[in-house]
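Practice problem 4.
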């Protein structure tokens, strides 16, 4: 068991939030002001749209990136479509995640940490 992996992943998340604390503080301040100056329906519609946009981009961007990288791997391909290296890397990753709960937990924490850091960077105006 490797609890230090989870502790490391959590520390990455905490650091990411602290680095962008001004953006988070400004966001929550603006959110409170928006709620105070709009009807519940208006606030709900605006907030739901924001959450949709904020959640969708950070989730899709890395998925599309890793897909592009893995499908572009050199070497032989299966059915002239999927590189053999893609199958090997994917199989190894699935095995690693299924065999070691500590690695699975650390990856889950690191994923949430990366998400919070990415959103915080956006709130700080540091993403494109």
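Answer key:
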């Amino acid at each position: 068991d490797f609890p230090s992996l989870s502790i490391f992943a959590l520390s990455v998340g905490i650091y990411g939030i602290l680095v962008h604390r001004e953006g988070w503080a400004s966001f929550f301040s603006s959110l409170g002001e928006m709620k105070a100056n709009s009807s519940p329906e208006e606030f709900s519609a605006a907030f739901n749209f924001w959450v949709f946009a904020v959640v969708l981009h950070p989730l899709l961007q890395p998925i599309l990136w890793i897909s592009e990288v893995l499908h572009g791997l050199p070497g032989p391909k299966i059915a002239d479509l999927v590189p053999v290296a893609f199958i090997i890397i994917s199989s190894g990753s699935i095995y690693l995640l299924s065999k070691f709960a500590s690695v699975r937990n650390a990856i889950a924490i690191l994923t949430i940490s990366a998400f919070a850091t990415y959103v915080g960077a956006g709130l700080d105006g540091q993403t494109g």
